[in-house]
Structures are given as C-alpha cells and as structure tokens.
Design brief:
The structure is a homodimer. Chain A is of the alpha+beta class. In chain A, strands 1, 2, 3, 4, 5, 6, 7 and 8 form an 8-stranded mixed sheet that branches. In chain A, helix 5 links the parallel strand 7 and strand 8. In chain A, helix 1 crosses helix 2. The mean pLDDT of chain A is 87. The interface between A and B is large, with 69 and 70 residues.
Chain lengths: 405, 405
C-alpha cells in the first residue's frame, strides 16, 4: 500500500523523537516541515485560559505563511506567564535555525509551536533544546517518518489518528493528509487539542481561511469526550502549492477543496471520539426538528455530554429516558408530545409515550460498537446538528484520577 | 435524643411501605400527612420533559393548600402521556380517600403526588392501589414513622437525608424538619429530585412562596452530581400553623423564618452532594471576583460539572490546571493575569503563573473528605457563587451502566 501518512503530501517531511519529557520514554517531540513556504491557516481554542504556544501561534499565523510545526507532548506550557511565552518562542527559534541550510535564516514567525500535556508546569527547556537538533536530523518523507510524527504528538491517546484523501482539480492531483491527537479534555470550540493537515494544493489565503473555518465547525467542533474545552486546542492546515494546480481562490474549486478537507477532518474527528479516554464505542448524536441551529447544537451537546447517557451506552442499557430528558434540560425549544427518540433504527418514544419497541432489540442495538442516538425535538423546525462522542467507562476514571502524579 | 425526623413537627404523621415496585423489597411508597390543611408552596423541575406527577402537582399547588404528599420510588412516571396523568391523579384520589375518616371527603387537589425512578415506564398501578391503604394504615407520629418516610422516597441513595431546626418567634417555638432524596440525575434548576419540609409555622402563602424561592436558589439549585437535571425534581414546604405563632406575613419574622428554612435546605443539599452516586467526597466550589452573578454561577458550574475536575479530586491528584481551565471555558469573563486558584487554603496559581506552593501539601488537602476549590476570576467584580458537588468514581459508572435492566 502506498504511503498515506502526512509525508505522502509532496514537499512535506516529518519526524519525532523521545527527548525525555514523557517519563515513559515514548516520543514527545515532533516536527513537520514544508520544503517551500506554505500558505497556512489555523483555528485555536476558545478557552479564556490559553497556553503560551497559543498566544505565540496566533501571532505567527497572522501573515498566513508557515514553514514548520514543532510540537511537544507531556507538558502543555499553560498558566506559565512570561516565562512560558519565552519558552514557546525559543522552541520556534531553535526550530527555525535547525531546518535551514547553514548560512540561511528563517524568521521565528514561520514556525507554529504547540505543547500538550499537564497544565501549570514549565517546559523542561534543557530537554527541548537538546531534542530539536535531533528531531530535525531525523526528518524524512518516508511513511515511517509520517507515522512517527503522528505518534509523537499523542498524550493519553491509545492509537494514532490519521486521514488521507486526494482530489483532481484542473488536471492536477491534490493530496490532503493529516493527523491529530485528542482523547481527554475534548469538547467543542476546537475539539481536537492538536490537528495538522498538510496539502500540496495551491490555494489563496482567504480561501484557505474560509475552508478551515467551515470545516472546523462541522468536524472538530462536533466532538466531545468530556465537555472540557482544552487550553491548547490547535488545528492548522499548511498548503505548499506543490501540486501546481491553478491557485484556488473561490467558486467550484474552493468548494471541491473544502469538501475534501472536510472528509479528512471528519475522519479525524470520528477517530478522536472513538479513542476518547476509556472509550469502547463511537456514538453519533443526531438532532432534527429544532427551531434554530443553536437549539440543535445545545440539545445534541446536552445528550453527548451527559454522564448518565454515556454510562447507559457503556452498559448497553436501553435506558432511553436519559436521552430525551437530556434534550429536555438543554434549553432548546422542544415539543415533547411531537418529539421522537430513536436508538439506531428503532423508534422508542413517540406521541408523548413509549412505543411498543422490543427493549431486547434496543438493548442489542446499544451493545454495538457504533451507535446513533436520534432525537427529533418536535418543534416543526428544520434545524439539525450532529455530534460525535463516546461512552464513559471505569477506565476513564482510572486514567483521570491519577494523571499528574 | 428527641425525635428530629419530619414527624417531630406538630400535626404531621408519616409512613412508608414496600408495595413491590422495587424488586429489592425495599420501601417504595411513602406518605406524609398534615392533620390540618397546610399552607403549601413547591418548586418543580425546569426540564422541558416533565413527569406526569409534576404536571398534576403544579395544578394541585395552585391554591396553596395541601393535606398530604404521596410518593412512590422505583418508577418515575415520565414520558407516559395521558395514561401517566391519569395514574398520578388516581394516586391522589386513593390517598385522599384513605386519610380521612369514613364519611368525610377531601378534594384530589389537596394531595401532592411524586414518583421517582426509571423514565419511560408506566406505573404498576395494581401495586400502588394495593399499597395506598397499607401506607395510610401505617401512619404515625413516632420517630420510626418519620425515618420510614425518609427511607421510602430513596432510589440509588445510600443514606437517608434529614434536617431539623427550631426557631422562636413571638414567644412560640416553631419546628422545621424535612428530608430529601437525590443521588443521580442531580443538577441545578431544582437539584434535588424530591425534598419535603414540614413546619408548624403559621405563615401566609405569599411569604411562604417568597421563602421557598429564595432558599431554593441558594441551596438545592447549587448542587450538582452529574449535571443531568431530572424530570421529577420537586421541593415542597408544608406549613400547618400548629405552632400558633402570629401568622408570618413579611418583615423580620419572614426573614427569620427564611433563614431557618435555608439552614434545613442547605443541610439537605450538602447531604445530596455527599451521597452523590459513587461519591467519596463533598466538594464546595467557590467563585469570587466575577463580573456578574450569572458569570459566577457559570464558572462554578463548569468546574463542578467537569469530569476531569471530579476525577482529579477522586484521585486526590493536585492537578489544579483542570480547575482554572474549566473556569476558562465556562463563558464567564475572566482576567487570567489577575485570577487566583486555591485548593483548600493553599493558593496554587496567581499572577499568571504557578505559585511555589508545595504540591505534596496540595495533594494532602485534596485527599481530605471535605474539599473547597476556590477560583477568583480576576475581573475586579464583586459577584460570587458557591456550588456543592462530589467526586466521580468507578462506582458511578458501575451504578449507571446497568440501571434499568
């Protein structure tokens, strides 16, 4: 099978090394480099408490051009004041120095820094300073190099998350490939913690910015594991133009590119939910019949974030009263008499009362690995929303009751 | 020790029996009767999906007079359409018939019905019909009878929750005593599921209504176990006037009565959080320095409802980044540079960076049974809020992953 990792995109090289931040000895410093300056757009967390790399990254993204992303896992560099900002800048400076040939130079602002892990600790800069030359030396365009990158950004994730697609545009083949990390502290408003998508498309900055915004709202912002919006969420797209297509600026080409970007981001979003901390199931919550888009979103999120819903799903327990009652407290307009609640393809509640659906069949559906919960709010409105989430297990408690120590 | 149960209030009798709704054989039908018509006020759930007893109860409370509360546990009578409404009315009718002497009659509307348990099932009316004469025959004013009542209303609660106080008013002693149930599906906007407070105070209906509203906002509406607002929440106060005080209508007497009612409701609220499903700790979240009361509430609730916060507390893990980051995504205005985060009496974050607090001491504080988390949002505002919650344990998952089946 051909390379489908992030290095499958022309002109991108990647690597990861273990520099000693994680006590487990797993890779914790990852680097993605575009050989040419890439048009770049990013979306960051909406949390008011933000990591130092977010503050630095927002400023570096202003010009819409990037050469590299440097990411450490194991420490988030959040709540670290001026020292944290200096550390994030130094990561960029060291990276800029390492990825160009001797004698050349690269501005600090061509590098996007990210850090993920525990909040409230300073970065171990001695380890990062020593690690950056090593990860730069390891850069390659092989599948192994791409896979190493997707592993190096993980924290409590059990599996790497990657996605790949191609599209044809004006006789040229464009590749889009990316990876992300995210398993805990996952909730809408940048749901991902970290996601990087590389493409060789030639695309104008305004078109890329429109694409990333539209796609984020329908993918990463529709994932929730535990309703806890992270301080470090970052989703960046780098487009280096090496596919040599006519630069995408608007219209049908932008639409086609955005659809392909959506496919990649949607796949990564589902992978985050499926690998939620302690998760055993991928759950899709669908709301229809809402008065407004905001109502549809509120109802979907109330269901997806309810611990009672998530434990019922974990137990394969056909306790659908928890689904409909979560919609009921979400604040969304609702007409209970006209509401419908479905589990998979089985309608369990309609006309204000339970249907005569066989609870054994509902239970069987709820025991599957992939499950869809559907609630029509009965308002006669046309708005809909869809959220990806997972179940809540004892394993989630085990992972999170003893994390820093 | 004298009787401090709900039957310690003059003119109130109580009882509970096992009528067979709960498969465990535990008491599941409870009755509270005032010998005289009592002035009564109640607060119900804000969930848009409401149980049939809530619909019936709201209508019965309109006149502000009650003689009795009849409560079954084990089935919530929610999402049950017209049949559910008829069943709730029949519970009231049967109770009204049973609690008066032969030949006398009592209107249906003097009875408040409540049901708690699984949603989406019809009440087993054969069992309830047979049970009501039994529970009426068991009515008594002994401590045992009061304790039986507080046990009969429980579902997944591990312990009964009761509170008692007295106050002196115009030379008369007024007694206020109550009990509640609540352990799962507990979140603000009537946090309690079911609470009944009896008093022998003579109080005018408008004053009682003001008292119950004010007290609810500062007590039951400040508890969250799992953020899931129940469809059955009910908090009722019955005041039968047998203390023979001058009827409370306003002013200093109302203030004094409201303060005593607050003490009873506040104690019951803390007991709910402490007995939250799977809980091992009582956690108090305090917000200060908020711009508005709404902001203070949002930030407190975001912290109290975060699974990451609750698991860190369960593990006694000094991972305070989870507290401050939950405030950060709550939507409340926040000035991170001027925010302060405290764990018990230890300040862990200030001036935008970690303090040099000893993490071992923080860990020791976090391992206590009672824990206070404090976040000052740093806006310079004067608004504050306080929420009671509990930790999140494997036991919560065990209780909720296999509940109906």
């Amino acid at each position: 099978m051909p390379n489908r990792s992030i290095t499958a995109v022309r002109g991108f090289r990647a690597a990861a090394v273990a520099c000693g931040i994680k006590s487990t000895g797993k890779p914790d410093l990852a680097l993605l480099v575009s050989d040419r300056p890439a048009t770049a757009a990013a979306v960051f967390t909406t949390n008011k408490v933000v990591g130092a790399p977010i503050i630095v990254g927002r400023s570096h993204l202003r010009a819409g051009k990037l050469r590299a992303c440097i990411i450490n896992s194991g420490c988030a560099n959040v709540c670290t004041g001026a020292r944290g900002i200096n550390d994030a800048r130094e990561m960029c400076l060291d990276t800029a120095t390492q990825i160009v040939a001797e004698g050349e130079s690269l501005p600090l602002t061509s590098i996007l820094p990210s850090s993920t892990g525990v909040i409230g600790r300073y970065l171990p800069m001695d380890k990062i300073r020593a690690g950056i030359p090593l990860v730069a030396a390891a850069l390659g365009d092989s599948e192994e190099a791409g896979n190493a990158f997707s592993l190096g950004i993980l924290t409590t994730d059990l599996v790497p998350k990657t996605a790949f697609t191609t599209l044809r545009l004006g006789g040229k083949t464009i590749t889009i490939a990316g990876c992300c990390k995210g398993s805990g502290m996952i909730a809408p408003n940048m749901a991902t913690m970290l996601a990087y998508i590389a493409t060789d498309a030639a695309i104008a900055l305004p078109a890329l910015r429109r694409a990333i915004r539209g796609v984020t709202d329908r993918t990463f912002n529709c994932v929730t594991v535990d309703q806890h919006t992270s301080t470090s969420d970052t989703f960046a797209v780098l487009a280096n133009g090496m596919a040599e297509n006519r630069t995408i600026t608007s219209g049908a080409a932008e639409k086609k590119f955005t659809a392909a970007l959506y496919d990649v981001a949607d796949s990564l979003s589902q992978q985050i939910a499926r690998d939620g901390e302690g998760a055993t199931k991928l759950v899709t919550v669908k709301i229809t019949g809402a008065k407004t888009a905001h109502d549809a979103k509120r109802a979907a999120e109330a269901i997806a974030n309810s611990a009672l819903v998530k434990t019922a799903i974990h137990g394969g327990d056909p306790n659908w009263g928890r689904f409909i009652s979560a919609a009921g407290y979400s604040g969304a307009a609702m007409n209970v008499e006209k509401s419908v609640c479905g589990v998979g393809k089985i309608v369990v509640f309609k006309n204000g009362r339970p249907t005569d659906a066989d609870l054994k069949a509902v239970q069987h559906t709820m025991q599957q690995k992939d499950l869809t919960i559907h609630v029509n709010l009965g308002t006669g409105g046309k708005s809909t929303h869809r959220v990806y989430t997972c179940d809540l297990s004892r394993e989630y408690i085990a992972i999170n009751a003893d994390y820093t120590t």
